[in-house]
Design goal:
single chain; Rossmann fold; 33 strands; 835 residues; elongated; alpha/beta; eight-stranded mixed β-sheet; VC0802-like
Length: 835
């Protein structure tokens, strides 16, 4: 029983009448199957609903199946009673059926009674038990007497009991609540098509609403123009939910079920099916029409003229982002799925051509058809009606059992490449016809045999491979960030690995542009300048946490320590990071280790090859050596492109201050050259490489020689730039001492592991003129690695260690690596049990 002491009163809205509902929440039978399931649903309502929302419910668990079974017994009993057979034989069979009927009704009452007793306090339970007893008495009286006439009233009890129970539980533990029987207000305009008379239904619903109480409405049932009970078909509660949204003007409808969304194929049959996070309305409608196990054909009809979004989520995992159906941009239109239907009939006749064929289409709404070839594909239950309809034209018709398999996606039938891919996937399987939906959102193959699970898996694999949608967010729009974006369009166009990468976010130091439907890559900077808005870190993390993509990659090209501190939250949400930013990888040992652990626990990828050496493959080379079993003993080299340039050109003839001013003017140094001369950047790079080699180090473990005299370190930048001539004698003295030994000076990083002891330092060294570290092109970096495999002849990697092109290219290389790794991942689908 739910503890009423933890009740939370939902916040009421100012208006409680029709056309003001915020959301409609529908809970399916599996979501309400047991007392534990109902408690979970109550918690969802407590967290997600307002008093002016509408709750729509199905019958609890397998109650509807039980009702159908009981009805079949009653129907058979009625038939036996009416048969003209010997009295003894009749009496015997009647007795058996009457006993079966009585036992089944008793079992039904016990199951409902158990739910009531488990969830309500004594007084509320007694009231509902009394109502249940009255219902059982009515069933026992009317069902055997005239089962066919009483059928819909009888089948409606499942939803009535479910709504009555949930309303009572809510009133006890959450907020005031009442239930409405949809038969009291929902009027069918056309019983055959289940079309609704919205004018009358809306007026009736408005009159029945009670202010400041949460309403629970029965799904699946309505009444016709003769005031008789009607059902909306199996799984009709989803249709009821969207009808209620249309009546009330709800902004959102959430179908809470036992799976966490809509998948690219039935996940019970295709384990590698992937979640479709966003679907355009028309595509979702086509999926429902062609057999999707979660969506159903009529569900979306009431929303066609309303700006309402439909969500599909799991009541068993409400924290997991589900699928959303609505009006979306280009990314949602690229989703593709494969579905199938078995037990269909292919009908072929000359009367199914031309004008008469058009009439047949309107009358029977076939799964697919071709009026030129004179065939339609219908359900088995439609065969008799179609046969009778054609008989009136006195023409021959042939019927053949068939199945269909279909690729469904936005305008998929218009895409020549997709049609060819679909046919190629089916090349080893016999097909009778290929057809497409009128709206072009499906391309259908008619099969002469059942569509097997093996076939569905094969076609799904061929049609949806490389279909993981990857969102890309770029942080840092400076020199390198802009170059990265300039290169991006060409990369997306020419590399199949990046086929499903979508730029969705641009982040500057104070403004951000986030567009769920994608940012046009060729206009990225212009779009940012025109549309970006101020943001807080919390807002950014919240959006990234709830992104609607299979994967999300943040490319960090900022120099910001604050931004790097968001990595922990990114990794906790399974977000991947490509970082040119050195702060995180060179942070404290505790923080660095925590980042690695969090990333590993949540399957987040973290690549940072451009943190050291720009586009040079130094990080990746160290990783490959370690992964292959090598043990690194020494890492050394010149890691700063700025210091490389300065000391490659410094010959003592030109004053060092003049050379420094020249480098600053060319943008070779940081705006404050002391950032380069301090050695801190090189110190961080050496720490990053040592950690990559498997050593646990901190910055404090690396001796760092600053080239800035103490008297110049803490003064304002402008004053420092005026006093740089104080550097001249210092560097001339060091260079002269080196020349006396036929050497030059270079700023070198060295890490050595020997006999279990580690030493690390970055400093200005005297190097022979023929030393590998001396023979560099200005701005070049050089990295030397010694290991078990590279002892006498060390591994040397040399090249440009700075520059917008090589750094942007290195980040693109990391992006390709991430996408390649993600493409090999297989998503595990967790199913609680589809209806």
């Amino acid at each position: 029983m739910i503890d009423s002491n933890v009740a939370v009163k939902l916040t009421p809205s100012k208006n409680q009448l029709a056309k003001t509902a915020c959301n409609v929440h529908k809970f399916g039978g599996s979501s309400l199957a047991t007392a534990a399931c109902i408690e979970r649903v109550v918690d969802i309502i407590r967290q997600h609903c307002q008093l002016n929302d509408i709750i729509v419910v199905s019958a609890n668990g397998d109650t509807t199946d039980a009702l159908f079974s009981i009805y079949q017994i009653a129907f058979e009993l009625d038939e036996v009673k009416q048969l003209n057979i010997e009295q003894v034989s009749q009496s015997s069979k009647v007795s058996v059926l009457e006993e079966q009927l009585s036992n089944a009704i008793t079992e039904l009452e016990v199951n409902q009674g158990n739910l009531i007793a488990a969830l309500l306090n004594a007084s509320s339970a007694a009231r509902l038990q009394s109502l249940l007893s009255d219902d059982i008495e009515e069933i026992s009286q009317h069902l055997p007497a005239n089962p066919e006439r009483y059928q819909n009233d009888f089948l409606a009890f499942g939803e009535v009991w479910s709504a009555r129970l949930l309303s009572a539980v809510l009133s006890e533990s959450v907020c005031p609540s009442y239930m409405l029987d949809a038969r009291d207000f929902l009027l069918l305009e056309n019983e055959k098509s289940c079309a609704i008379d919205y004018v009358v239904s809306e007026k009736n619903f408005t009159n029945l609403q009670q202010p400041e109480q949460l309403v629970v409405v029965t799904g699946y049932i309505a009444r016709n123009q003769h005031q008789q009970a009607c059902t909306l078909g199996r799984n009709g509660s989803d249709y009821s939910a969207t009808i209620m949204a249309a009546l009330s003007g709800a902004r959102n409808v959430t179908l809470w079920t036992d799976v966490d969304g809509i998948y690219s194929a039935d996940p019970r049959v295709v384990p590698q099916a992937r979640k479709l996070h966003r679907l355009p309305n028309a595509v979702a409608n086509e999926l429902g029409r062609l057999g999707n196990p979660v969506l159903h054909a009529k569900t979306l009809h009431p929303l066609t003229s309303h700006n309402t979004h439909l969500h599909v989520a799991s009541s068993f995992a409400p924290e997991v982002s589900g699928s959303e159906i609505g009006k979306f941009g280009q990314i949602a239109k690229q989703e593709l799925s494969v579905t199938y239907l078995n037990d269909l009939i292919l009908a072929k006749s000359v009367s199914l051509q031309g004008e008469w064929g058009s009439r047949a289409i309107k009358e029977f709404s076939p799964v697919c058809y071709n009026l030129d070839e004179g065939y339609v594909v219908i359900t088995q239950v439609q065969q008799k009606a179609l046969s009778q309809w054609l008989a009136s034209h006195d023409t021959e018709v042939s019927f053949k059992p068939v199945a269909i398999i279909a690729a469904v996606g936005y305008q998929v039938a218009k895409q020549g490449g997709m049609r060819a891919r679909f046919k190629r996937a089916l090349r080893h399987h016999r097909t009778l016809h290929f057809a497409h939906a009128e709206n072009q959102h499906s391309y259908i193959a008619v099969l002469p045999e059942l569509c097997t699970g093996e076939l569905l898996n094969n076609i799904h694999a061929d049609m949806t491979k490389d279909a993981r949608n990857i969102a890309l967010v770029v942080a840092g729009l400076g020199n390198i960030g802009q170059r990265f974006l300039e290169i991006l369009p060409k990369q997306l166009a020419r590399l199949p690995t990046l086929e499903n990468v979508h730029l969705v976010g641009l982040i500057g130091s104070s403004k951000a542009l986030i567009n769920t439907d994608g940012i046009e890559v060729t206009k990225a900077i212009t779009s940012y300048q025109q549309q970006a808005k101020a943001y807080e870190s919390e807002q950014l993390v919240e959006w990234l946490t709830n992104h609607p993509y299979d994967e999300l990659v943040v490319v960090d090209i900022t120099p910001s320590e604050d931004f790097s501190q968001l990595y922990q939250q990114f990794f906790a949400q399974g977000i991947h990071v490509i970082g040119a930013n050195k702060w995180a990888a060179s942070s404290s040992t505790e923080n660095y280790q925590q980042l690695l652990n969090t990333a590993k626990a949540n399957n987040s990828l973290w690549l940072g090859n451009t943190t050291v050496g720009a586009g040079l493959p130094i990080n990746s080379s160290i990783e490959e050596l370690i992964n292959s079993g090598d043990v690194i003993s020494e890492i050394s080299g010149i890691f700063s492109g700025t210091l490389s340039w300065l000391f490659q050109y410094y010959d003592g003839l030109t004053p060092f201050s003049e050379l420094l001013a020249n480098a600053l003017e060319q943008g070779i140094t940081e705006p404050d050259p002391r950032e380069d001369l301090s050695g801190r950047d090189v110190q961080r790079k050496l720490l990053i490489l040592a950690r990559a080699a498997g050593f646990e180090l901190s910055l404090a473990d690396i001796d760092c020689q600053s080239l800035v005299p103490e008297q110049l370190r803490d003064i304002p930048l402008a004053e420092f730039l005026q006093r740089t001539d104080e550097l001249n004698d210092l560097f001339l003295l060091r260079l002269s001492a080196a020349k006396e030994q036929a050497c030059g000076i270079r700023y070198v990083a060295r890490f050595v592991s020997e006999n279990g002891k580690v030493s690390a330092k970055v400093s200005l060294e005297k190097l022979a003129n023929d030393d590998a570290f001396s023979q560099l092109t200005p701005c070049d970096n050089v990295f030397q690695i010694k290991s078990e495999w590279y002892q006498e002849n060390p591994l040397i990697i040399r090249g440009p260690g700075a520059g917008r092109d090589v750094t942007a290219g290195g980040i693109h290389a990391d992006l390709v690596t991430v996408c390649q790794q993600l493409s090999h991942r297989q998503q595990q689908v967790k199913i609680k049990g589809l209806n």
